[in-house]
Design goal:
Elements (H helix, E strand, L loop, with lengths): L3 E2 L5 H5 L4 E7 L4 H17 L3 E7 L4 H6 L7 E6 L2 E7 L4 H9 L4
Parallel strand pairs: 1-3, 2-3
Antiparallel strand pairs: 2-4, 4-5
GO biological process, one term: cell redox homeostasis
Organism: Paenibacillus tyrfis
Family: Belongs to the thioredoxin family.
């Protein structure tokens, strides 16, 4: 799968997925967001069949960010079968991201 950019209008439909979906809330001006974006891309190259990744630009899609109480970026919420199950605030290394996701695969 490829990393998909979603909007306030398409988010609900884009989130419909059996299994795990990572939703990354970010902004273009945010240096930690850009750094974490490269980590998400590396993760996606290795695990694109396991986890779907959606990105939400908080400057352009404020309603979706508000819906999930995003106050700091980057914030990444893990959804399982369309329901939020866990959240990371900040950028983390790819190994921690793998552990975070693996803990919810059961």
């Amino acid at each position: 799968m490829t990393i998909c950019h979603t909007t306030d209008t398409t988010f609900t439909n884009d989130l419909k997925n059996d299994g795990l979906t990572l939703v990354n809330f970010w902004a273009t001006w945010c240096a930690p967001c850009r750094f974490f974006g490269t980590i998400l891309e590396a993760f996606d190259r290795e695990h694109n069949s396991d986890v779907r990744i959606l990105k939400v630009n908080v400057d352009e899609e404020a309603n979706t960010a508000a819906q999930f109480g995003v106050m700091s970026i980057p914030t990444t919420i893990l959804f399982k079968n369309g329901e939020p199950v866990d959240k990371i605030v900040g950028a983390i290394p790819v190994e921690e991201l793998k552990k975070f996701i693996d803990s919810h695969k059961k």
